[in-house]
């Protein structure tokens, strides 16, 4: 006989057997997750992964479980990297993140680091274990290692301990270089010698500029000699290069995000190390990884300039790195301090030569953020002599006129026009084309705004373009032919923005063309335009008439006459029209008619 209870009971039991158990330990969920992952039961594996994460596991406990089961950890990483199941990829990634958090917590724990430094002076095996763990701690170990070295140096009875620490220091390897390089600013000569020797034993080129700086600037013969010896172990050829050049080269490697210079992966921030002279020890500042490389590039450039104030290439790279930093749109690092000027302040202060260096780099890299910053600085500071600045065979600002990003192109055109060149140059047509294109952007719908373009930005460029074209027109610039932009300027007289309409009329007043003058008159006579726009248009027509005489059609002249002769015309508009009419210097018949029409005798 069919018994419903007999069927339901095994199903319930099966659910408990095949699914995560409420209240299971971290170890149980971890082991079951890996087990079902290994045998391909991904539905169950995902369930145990969720249970593991929902239990808010201690990262240090999960790290130990991963270390105890290397094959399981490898399966987890493989699932994250290769699984076709998006949910499993996400869950396995979250588990790996917890493990990495545990790894970071363990390796940066000061208490553990200090204990391992003490272990260095126990037994040979203890030294080996301690070195391995200090190597895991990486850069976080260095402040405590140096503290221990200073203490041992001050106590003659601790020479064995000092020897064990000195022997261990280079074993920490590449992660030790950044803090060790910062610690070279210490006043403790004996400590500096050991840091220099350790950098030489690590044999990584990142240390070269710091060592060469010691060779060039230290007053202590022992330090200079030690630095030279360490350089010889890393790269003997570097002895011939200046510290300024070596710092600049390291800065470029940071700027281009060399893999070998990347910060540790187990934290969502990076460290920049400083020497705290007051405390006499290392200090670190956490910074966003998004601009860590750029900040380090800036620091390298600063050291390059400390080494040689005349090494101008470092200024160009520093500016480019600062513009890249700002492009992340993140808050600037805490060590900048309150009131720190932005990149544009430094760029404009630096002047055109260094702005061109940053721009040349941006064009080579196709980096719109840096290019735009450099070009905008040039727009403020560049004069005709610096306009065509050449770096080798290239002229960066003129090359920017062809840049892929329109904001850069438009800014470059505005910069060139603002400089007011009087001598002709091959790219002058490009300047006009970009100005005309920028002017036409103001009333066009942008659609969805992006980082590089928005309606507000389009309108800003339209206004700036009109303003600089008017400046060119008023100065009768011989190098830039604004007549090439006439069509765009005439179209701008119909803009929805009054300021653009007025500027367009003022520009057209300087163009000796029937089309230009007639477009001004059309704007002045258009009753749909605002009164102030019409009055401004008549003022522009007056200017055009004075410069080029009458270029209007007879019908347009009649329309202006009708406006002036009407008693219904607003007085301000009538006055502006009358002045324009007079400036046209027409035959006397029209004026005679105007006088007689009002006569009462």
What is the general shape? Answer: elongated
Estimate the mean pLDDT confidence.
Answer: 91
> How many helices does DSSP assign?
32
Contiguous runs where pLDDT drops below 50 for at least 5 residues: 1-17
Which band does the percent of strand residues land in? under 5%
Radius of gyration: 37 Å
| Strand line-up across the major sheet | 1-2
What percent of the residues sit in helical stretches (DSSP H or I)? Answer: 55-70%
- The secondary-structure class comes to mainly alpha
Q: What's the story with the biggest beta sheet?
A: 2 strands, antiparallel
Q: How many β-strand runs? A: 2
Spatial separation of the terminal alpha carbons: 129 Å
Structure description:
Helices cover 66% and strands 3% of the residues. It has 601 residues and is mainly alpha-helical. Among the domains are: 4-107, no CATH class; 516-601. A two-stranded antiparallel ribbon has the order 1-2. The longest helix is centred in the N-terminal third of the chain and has 22 residues, at 86-107. It is elongated. It starts with a helix and ends with a helix.
Keyphrases for this structure?
mainly alpha; two-stranded antiparallel sheet; 66% helix; disordered N terminus
Topology:
Layout: H1 4-18, H2 26-38, H3 42-54, H4 59-68, H5 70-82, H6 86-107, H7 110-119, H8 124-137, H9 142-153, H10 159-168, H11 177-183, H12 189-202, H13 208-217, H14 221-234, H15 243-255, E1 269-276, E2 281-288, H16 292-307, H17 313-327, H18 343-350, H19 352-365, H20 368-381, H21 384-387, H22 396-399, H23 406-419, H24 428-441, H25 455-474, H26 486-492, H27 498-508, H28 514-525, H29 531-548, H30 554-565, H31 571-583, H32 588-597
Helix pairs in contact: 2-3, 2-5, 3-6, 4-6, 5-6, 7-8, 9-10, 11-12, 12-14, 13-14, 13-15, 15-16, 15-17, 16-17, 17-18, 17-19, 17-20, 18-20, 19-20, 20-23, 23-24, 23-25, 24-25, 24-26, 25-27, 26-27, 27-28, 27-29, 28-29, 28-30, 29-31, 30-31
């Amino acid at each position: 006989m069919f018994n419903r209870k007999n069927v339901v009971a095994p199903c319930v039991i099966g659910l408990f057997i095949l699914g995560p158990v409420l209240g299971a330990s971290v170890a149980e969920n971890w082991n079951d997750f890996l087990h079902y992952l290994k045998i391909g039961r991904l539905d169950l594996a995902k369930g145990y992964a969720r249970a593991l994460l929902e239990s808010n596991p201690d990262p240090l406990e999960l790290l130990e479980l991963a270390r105890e089961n290397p094959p399981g950890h490898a399966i987890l990483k493989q699932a994250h990297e290769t699984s076709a199941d998006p949910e499993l990829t996400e869950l396995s990634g979250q588990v790996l993140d917890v493990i990495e958090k545990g790894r970071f917590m363990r390796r940066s724990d000061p208490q553990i680091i200090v204990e391992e430094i003490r272990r260095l002076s126990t037994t040979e095996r203890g030294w080996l274990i301690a070195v391995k763990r200090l190597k895991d701690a990486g850069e976080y170990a260095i402040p405590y290692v140096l503290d221990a070295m200073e203490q041992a140096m001050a106590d003659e009875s601790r020479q064995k301990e000092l020897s064990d620490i000195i022997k261990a220091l280079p074993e920490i390897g590449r992660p030790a270089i950044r803090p060790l390089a910062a610690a070279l600013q210490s006043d403790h000569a004996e400590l500096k010698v050991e840091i220099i020797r350790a950098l030489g034993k690590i044999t990584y080129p990142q240390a070269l500029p710091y060592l060469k700086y010691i060779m060039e600037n230290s007053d202590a013969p022992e330090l200079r000699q030690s630095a030279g010896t360490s350089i010889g172990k890393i790269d003997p050829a570097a002895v011939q290069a200046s510290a300024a050049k070596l710092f600049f080269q390291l800065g470029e490697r940071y700027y281009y995000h060399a893999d070998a210079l990347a910060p540790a992966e187990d934290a969502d921030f990076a460290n920049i190390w400083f020497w705290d002279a007051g405390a006499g020890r290392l200090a670190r500042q956490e910074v966003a990884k998004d601009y860590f490389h750029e900040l380090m590039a800036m620091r390298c450039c600063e050291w390059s300039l400390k080494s040689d104030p005349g090494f101008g290439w470092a200024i160009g790279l520093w500016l480019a790195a600062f513009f890249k930093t700002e492009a992340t749109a993140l808050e600037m690092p805490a060590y900048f301090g309150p009131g720190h000027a932005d990149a544009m302040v430094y760029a404009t202060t630096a002047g055109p030569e260094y702005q061109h260096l940053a721009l040349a780099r941006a064009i080579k890299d196709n980096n719109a953020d840096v290019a735009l910053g450099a070009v905008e600085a040039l727009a403020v500071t560049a004069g005709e002599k610096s306009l065509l600045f050449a770096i080798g065979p290239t002229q960066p600002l003129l090359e920017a006129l062809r840049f892929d990003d329109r904001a850069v192109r438009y800014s470059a055109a505005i910069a060139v026009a603002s400089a007011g060149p009087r001598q002709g140059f091959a790219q002058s047509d490009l300047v006009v084309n970009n100005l005309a294109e920028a002017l036409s952007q103001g009333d066009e719908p942008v659609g969805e705004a992006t980082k590089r373009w928005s309606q507000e930005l389009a309108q800003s460029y339209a206004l700036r373009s009109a303003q600089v074209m008017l400046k060119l027109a008023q100065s009768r610039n011989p190098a830039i032919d604004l007549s090439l932009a006439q069509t765009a300027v005439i179209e701008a007289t119909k803009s929805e923005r009054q300021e653009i309409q007025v500027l367009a009329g003022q520009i057209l007043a300087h163009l000796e063309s029937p089309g230009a003058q007639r477009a001004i008159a059309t704007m002045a006579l258009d009753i749909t335009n605002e009164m102030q726009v019409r009055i401004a248009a008549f003022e522009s027509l007056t200017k055009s008439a004075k410069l080029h005489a009458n270029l209007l059609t007879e019908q347009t002249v009649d329309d202006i006459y009708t406006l002036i002769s009407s008693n219904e015309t607003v007085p301000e508009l009538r006055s502006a029209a009358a002045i324009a009419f007079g400036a046209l210097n027409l035959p006397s018949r029209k004026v005679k008619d105007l006088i007689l029409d009002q006569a009462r005798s």
